[in-house]
Amino acid sequence: MVTAAMQGHLNPMLRFAKRLVSNGVHVTLATTELARQRMLKHNTFTSQNTTIQLEFFSDGLSLEFDREKNLELFVESLRTTASKNLSDLVTNLAKDNKFSCMIVNGFMPWWADVAAEHGIPAAMLWNQASAIYSIYYHYFKHPDLFLDLENPKGVVQLPGMPLLKIEDLPSFIFPTKNACMTKLVSEFVQYLDKVKWVLGVSVYELEKEIVKSMASLTPIRPIGPLVSSILLGKEETVPLKVDMWNAEDYCIEWLNNQPPSSVIYVSFGSMKVLSQKQMDNIAIGLKKSNKPFLWVVKPPEKGSERKAGELPLGFLEETEGIGLVVSWCSQEKVLMHQAVACFMTHCGWNSTLETVVAGVPVIAYPEWTDQLTNAKLLTDVFKVGVRIRNGEDGVAGAEEVERCIVEVIDGPRAAEIKKRAMELKEAAKKAVEDGGSSEHNFNQFIDEIARKPCRAL
Ligand code: UDP
Predict the structure, then answer these.
(1) What pLDDT score does 241 carry?
(2) How many angstroms does the Cα of residue 269 sit away from the middle of ligand 1?
(3) Which ligand 1 atom is at minimum distance from the Cα of 326?
(4) Ligand 1: which residue has its CA nearest to atom 17?
(5) Whole-number pLDDT of residue 39
(6) Is 407 in the pocket of ligand 1 (CB under 6 A)?
(7) Ligand 1 within 6 A of CB of 228
(8) DSSP one-letter string for 250-303
(9) What is the tens place of the pLDDT at every residue in 43-97?
(10) Whole-angstrom Cα distance, residue 434 to residue 317?
(11) Model confidence over 371-397: pLDDT tens digits?
(12) How buried is residue 118: exposed, middle or buried, by Cβ count under 10 Å (0-12/13-18/19+)?
């Protein structure tokens, strides 16, 4: 398995690796050096005796290089230098291993070429919603379905999906906003013809019509929810972690002292850096709601030039005893804690799946990429939350933050939202049980790679 060192990409790969290992498959997980450096720096590197072999290769850039700011250079380096380094690593590893499959991340599709170069069949793990898979597929294969993109009131109708407004579409299909990511997504679609399997981290039951609509095109087989076994209420049999930051676990003790279903959990994932205005408005909204909160404010990486907003002066003192601010937490442990009432999320796909499996209602606060579509899914398709609306200045105001908190916890729709969240939680868990949709696709994949003769060395 191969993926670049981004928490949102590493997590599903690792969870998939653990599931494979628990089913008797040998797994080597290779990621970029940045992960090892960060794990060493934050003391989260555990060289436990695990059944997953961790390997690292360089993405060709220094540790300090600001990858998010220089996205184009970063992607180019992954495409070229990292591919070369990965190939060297595979050559080395192949001395002692016979690989029957190489699983690549959909956002690093060219690594399927490395697999081909070494005569290894490739699978792609699509670590976003099946809806996004379908949108990208149709956008590049049937552009005629997307004629109205210039019109802010335009809509797009795709098979198995509700009518999508422009604001619901993933930002990577708009080349003027992010040309290098549009190019990357087009490469992803081209590589779908080169890989033998496309596996999805989502759950069939959550996106049934969409998955069915892709069956006659390039099928995606959902093997999700790819969340950790703890969240699924199962025992963790493979203890390996690849956390690039240190979780401040005292927040769990803090949650233990809060009333059931009372706490607002606020987190924007591993990469988002909030502006000062966003910080101020969230802080005021939280304070006004007068409810307990746990807020993850992750500082930007060293070397990052992005100016991060800071907590308003005096906020920590004023909210002492009511709220807690940490720099990173064990999100899954937090989400499954009975004290948590709702999750204000940027709608990254991992966070989306995790909250669905935990049965926690959301306040969707998306910004770009697939987050915009995930917010639509969460609020209008799954119906497990409300979407925050930006004001004219492009930022959600403090009153809007407060309004959403009240609506999702105490509003007239709150009970219905919670009921729906509990129903989806059950459906997601069922998928990974014996006879479930995810279990079926997963077993089929193992059968197929096992049947495939290993490359003769
Ligand atoms: N996460 C975490 N602790 C935090 C914040 C996030 O463990 O304090 C994890 C979260 O559980 C998820 C991942 O980081 O698995 C974030 O992935 P997501 O796709 O939601 O967002 P991204 O970071 O890719 O924007």
Answers:
(1) 83
(2) 4
(3) 8
(4) 8
(5) 86
(6) no
(7) no
(8) HHHHHHHTSPTT-EEEEE-TTT----HHHHHHHHHHHHHHT--EEEE-PPPPTT
(9) 777 656 678 999 999 999 998 899 988 999 999 999 999 999 999 999 999 999 8
(10) 50
(11) 999 999 999 999 999 999 999 999 999
(12) middle
393, burial (CB in 10 Å: exposed 0-12, middle 13-18, buried 19+): exposed
**Three-state DSSP class for 17?**
helix
Confidence of residue 303 (pLDDT cuts 50, 70, 90): low
Cα(445)–Cα(219) distance, rounded to whole angstroms?
13
Q: Is residue 331 within 6 Å of ligand 1 at its C-beta? A: yes
Pocket of ligand 1 contains residue 11 by CB under 6 Å = yes
Does ligand 1 come within 6 angstroms of the Cβ of 101?
no
21 lines ligand 1 (CB under 6 A): no
Written as six digits, the tokens of 351 are 């966070």
> Does ligand 1 come within 6 angstroms of the Cβ of 85?
no
Three-class SS state of 33? helix
How many A from CA of 211 to the centre of ligand 1? Answer: 25
Q: Say which CATH superfamily domain 7-242+432-449 falls into.
A: Glycogen Phosphorylase B; (3.40.50.2000)
Residue 351 CA, ligand 1 centroid: distance in Å:
6
**Two tokens at 442?**
């997963």
Identify the pLDDT of residue 453: 53
User: 250-329+338-427: which CATH topology?
Assistant: Rossmann fold (3.40.50)
* Amino acid occupying residue 311: L
**pLDDT tens, position by position, 150-188:** 898 999 999 999 999 999 999 999 988 889 999 999 999
Element containing residue 226 per DSSP (H, E): none
Q: What is the pLDDT of residue 243?
A: 83
Pocket test for ligand 1, best of 42, 350, 353 (most atoms within 8 A of CB): 350
Question: Is-contact 143 223, C-beta < 8 A?
Answer: no
CA of 270 to the centre of ligand 1 (A): 5
Q: Is the CB of 328 under 6 A from ligand 1?
A: yes
Same topology for domains 7-242+432-449 and 250-329+338-427, yes or no? Answer: yes
What is the distance between the alpha carbons of residues 430 and 127, in angstroms, rounded to a whole number?
20
**Single-letter code of the amino acid located at 411:** G
Domain boundaries, the chain: 7-242+432-449, 250-329+338-427
pLDDT surpasses 50 at 457: no
Which is the closest atom of ligand 1 to the Cα of 269? Answer: 23
Which residues does 81 contact at the CB level (< 8 Å), separation at least 6?
58, 59, 60
Could you tell me if the CB of 136 is within 6 A of ligand 1?
no
**Would you place residue 366 in the very low, low, confident or very high pLDDT band (cuts 50, 70, 90)?**
very high
Three-state secondary structure call for residue 411: coil
